[in-house]
């Protein structure tokens, strides 16, 4: 049975790749067994802000019973490569490496230094990876002017450039009520109270989904998503529980007033329900001004003859980089591809993967040789 390798084991593979390509290699470890791998291709002008190409080495778990092929075997069928991480995000990390390999073989000169960072634990919040790495002096020493990170697949011809992210608001709702036997009509039970609250959240979800589906100019990042992710309560089927609990994953666009939204939650949960809300607030927009080496990325992509570009928002590792004031752009060169991150039978077609290398071979020199930022 196939099992995912650890981040420490992944670093062994990455070190071998660095040696083959001719990249400088080093590691930074904030938590034992979870190293951050850093590869560097020095630029001709090291005084310029560098370009960071970030990816994460971890993947989410799998339910192998729902996979048509072993999820860690990279089985290829009709050009489709089936494996956990093909979209999220082994593809991008390997495309970075292959693009730099090709550029070195072609003798392409780059003015800016390029750093590749491979971080652990992104799928569980990045707390033992990028979150603590950006606080270390080494991160500042990298002199990063802009970072590229993961995006999402696009089911259309367009590629999506993610310039910011929504606020993640995780809400846990707890209710209490009288217990009793499962054969009776007990009033105002914990589950009845909780069900009322759940219905209010899901009605708001329905309204937001209708806005997205009814307006072709809207993107996912323009609306608030609400998902019921956890339900707890009860000990056995014939006992009415005295306590019940649920949790929602809510993602709020920058246009939403957080204080007003908290008032809305208070209104939904005011009927004898105690609410615990936890949220993470980050710099949700990146200003791509003329002093950023990534300011020309959308135009560069359009000019690359590969695609049209749509701007949007996405929640991932870039939030920690953005928190330092460094612009971070999410971009994965996967178009005409279903979005399958965290899904069963995750796959990426080999033609899409190989074309992604070509795209990076074109846009990385354009970004690295943009000398606007001094």
From TrEMBL:
<feature type="binding site">
    <location>
        <position position="56"/>
    </location>
    <ligand>
        <name>Zn(2+) 1</name>
    </ligand>
</feature>
<comment type="similarity">
    <text>Belongs to the peptidase M20A family.</text>
</comment>
<dbReference type="Pfam" id="PF07687">
    <property type="entry name" value="M20_dimer"/>
</dbReference>
<dbReference type="InterPro" id="IPR011650">
    <property type="entry name" value="Peptidase_M20_dimer"/>
</dbReference>
<feature type="binding site">
    <location>
        <position position="342"/>
    </location>
    <ligand>
        <name>Zn(2+) 2</name>
    </ligand>
</feature>
<dbReference type="GO" id="GO:0004046">
    <property type="term" value="F:aminoacylase activity"/>
</dbReference>
<dbReference type="Pfam" id="PF01546">
    <property type="entry name" value="Peptidase_M20"/>
</dbReference>
<feature type="binding site">
    <location>
        <position position="123"/>
    </location>
    <ligand>
        <name>Zn(2+) 2</name>
    </ligand>
</feature>
<keyword id="KW-0862">Zinc</keyword>
<keyword id="KW-0378">Hydrolase</keyword>
<dbReference type="GO" id="GO:0005737">
    <property type="term" value="C:cytoplasm"/>
</dbReference>
<feature type="active site">
    <location>
        <position position="58"/>
    </location>
</feature>
<feature type="active site" description="Proton acceptor">
    <location>
        <position position="122"/>
    </location>
</feature>
<feature type="binding site">
    <location>
        <position position="150"/>
    </location>
    <ligand>
        <name>Zn(2+) 1</name>
    </ligand>
</feature>
<feature type="domain" description="Peptidase M20 dimerisation">
    <location>
        <begin position="163"/>
        <end position="272"/>
    </location>
</feature>
<dbReference type="InterPro" id="IPR001261">
    <property type="entry name" value="ArgE/DapE_CS"/>
</dbReference>
<protein>
    <recommendedName>
        <fullName>N-acyl-aliphatic-L-amino acid amidohydrolase</fullName>
        <ecNumber>3.5.1.14</ecNumber>
    </recommendedName>
</protein>
<dbReference type="InterPro" id="IPR010159">
    <property type="entry name" value="N-acyl_aa_amidohydrolase"/>
</dbReference>
<keyword id="KW-0963">Cytoplasm</keyword>
<dbReference type="GO" id="GO:0046872">
    <property type="term" value="F:metal ion binding"/>
</dbReference>
<keyword id="KW-0479">Metal-binding</keyword>
<dbReference type="InterPro" id="IPR002933">
    <property type="entry name" value="Peptidase_M20"/>
</dbReference>
<dbReference type="GO" id="GO:0006520">
    <property type="term" value="P:amino acid metabolic process"/>
</dbReference>
<feature type="binding site">
    <location>
        <position position="88"/>
    </location>
    <ligand>
        <name>Zn(2+) 2</name>
    </ligand>
</feature>
<dbReference type="InterPro" id="IPR036264">
    <property type="entry name" value="Bact_exopeptidase_dim_dom"/>
</dbReference>
<dbReference type="InterPro" id="IPR052083">
    <property type="entry name" value="Aminoacylase-1_M20A"/>
</dbReference>
<feature type="binding site">
    <location>
        <position position="88"/>
    </location>
    <ligand>
        <name>Zn(2+) 1</name>
    </ligand>
</feature>
